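To assess whether ligand presence alters the predicted conformation, the chain was also submitted together with 3-methyl-2-oxobutanoic acid. Input:
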Amino acid sequence: MSFNPAKYRRTPTPELPNRQWPNRFLTQAPIWVSVDLRDGNQALANPMTVEQKLALWHQLVKMGFKTIEIGFPSASQPEFDFTRRLIEENRIPDDVTVQVLVQAREHLIARTYEALQGVKKAVIHVYNTTSIVQRENVFEKTKDEIKAMAVQGAKWVQEYAVKASQTNPQAEWTFQYSPESFSQTETDYAVEVCEAVMEVWQPTPQNKCILNLPATVESTSPNRFADQVEYFITHLKNREAALISIHTHNDRGCAVAAAELALLAGADRIEGTLLGNGERTGNMDIVTLAMNLYSEGIDPGLDLSQPQSWLPVVEEVTQIKTHPRHPWVGEVVYTAYSGSHQDAIRKCLLKQQADAPWNVAYLPIDPKDLGRDYEAIIRVNSQSGKAGSAFVLAQEYGLNLPKWVQLDFAPVAQKLAEEKGGVVSHRDLYNAFAEHYGLNTAAMTLDHYQLDRVNGKEQLTIEVNGEQWQGSGNGTLSALCDAWQQRSGQNVDVIDYAEHALHTVEMNAPQGKHAQAIAYVYLQGEQGKRVSVALAEDTVSAMLQALLKGLN
Ligand code: KIV
Ligand code: ZN
C-alpha cells in the first residue's frame, strides 16, 4: 500500500475541553430500537420476503424490543405490504411501537401515513442528510437550503399526522428526525438544524420528539464521536423535550464502542441490529452491546438467553452465517483449546459457588446464561496439554484423574490429537483412556477376597486366577504387595493411589459387571514406575484390580 499523506483528512469534531463522559459509568440499559427490518433488510443482496420479515418481527417482539423499525413503507410495495399485514392482522402487541423511515419528501410522507392507516402507535422517522460532502457534492445546496429541507420535512410529517388522525383518532404519533451523517456534519450546524425541526414540532418533556444522531459512515474514533454527542446534547436548547438516539455504523469496527461512549455522553436510546447486520460493515450490534451490559451486572432488558432459538431465524432471513468468534454468541467463544487456559478454567469452575459472583478466568460470563453447556468449553487438540483431557474426562465421564495420572496420560492424548489433526472428540478421548489402561480387560481374575484386621494389620486372603494368595500390611494395597512379594519374590511399593465412586455414566467393568468405582494406583516395582487404572463394582475391588494390573 503506498501511503499518500495528502489523500485522507481527519474528520473535524468539536473542541470539548470539559467533556464529562470519560468520568461516567453505564448504569442502565438504553431504550433499544431494532432496525433489522429496515437498515438490516436494505443491506441484503436478497431482501427479506414478507414471510421472512414476519418471522423476524415475531422474534424481535419475543426478545423484548418495544420499538421496532419495520421498514420504509413508501420505498417499495413489499415494504408497504408488510406494514399493512402487521396492522391488519393485528400482530402488533399493545406495548410495542412500530417505527417507519421516510425521506423529507411530501409524496413519500403521504404514502407512509397511508401504510400506517389503523396503527395504534408509531414513530415517524424523517431524515435528510446534513454532512459536508453530501451538501457539496450530492445535493449542491447551502447550509440554509439543507436546513429548510429538514424544516419542510418536519412540517409535512406533522401535517399528515393531523390528517391521518382524522380517520384514525386513537393513533399516537411520535416524531423522529435524523440529520443523516451527523458524525460528518459540523456539530454546531447539526444542533441548528435539529433546533429548527423542534421549532416546528414544539415537543415538551411530556411529549418528546426523538433526535437520532447517526454515524452513517463511521469516520472517527469512538471518543471523538462521544465528544460530538456530548457537545450536541449540551448545546441543544430544550434538550428535555427530546430523546437523544444513537445510530452507529461499523466502518472502523467500533460501532459498539461508539454507542457505549455515546451513552456515557448522555444519549438515551440506541438503534441497531442483531449481530450487526446492515449496510457495508453493518449497524451497531445490539447483541454485543446488550451482553456487554449484562456482563457488568446491568439488566439489558432484552431476552437473549436462548440463542439456539433466535440465531437460526436471523441467519435464515439474512442468509448470513454467524462468525464462530462473534462476541458472546459465536460457536467457539466459550471454548478453550490452549492447555493453560483449560487448566485455569477447570480450577476456577471447581471453586465457583452457585450463588457467588462469577469469577472464572477466560470466561467473561457463565456460558450457561446463553444456553451453552460446559461440555463444549474445553476441546482437546494438540495445544491442550494435560488439563484439557482431565477436564473432559471429569466433566463427561466423572473421572477425577490424580495429577500423576494426568501426566501419565498426557502423551497418549497428545499423540491422538496429532493423529486426528484437529479437535479430538470426547468419546475418542475416553476410548483412548480406556484402551491405554485396559479398562475393559482384567489382568487376572479376582474371584474372592477377604480382609481381616489382626494385631493392627490388614490380613488379605484373595483368590487370583483360581489360586489363593495371602499377605499382610498396613492397608489393603500393602497387604496385596506383600502377597505378591511372597509369591514372586519381587518387591513392589505403592507410591500413591486414589479411588472414587462413579456417578455420571454407566461403564462396564471387565467380566460384564457394572462398574461403580474406579481406582488409580502409582507403583514402584523393580522394573520402574507405573500407573495403573481399573474399574470394578466396588472401590476395594477396583483398588485390588488396579494393583494386580500393575503387577502383571
Ligand atoms: O445510517 C443512517 O444514517 C440511517 C439513517 C436513515 C438514520 O440509517
Ligand atoms: Zn443506518
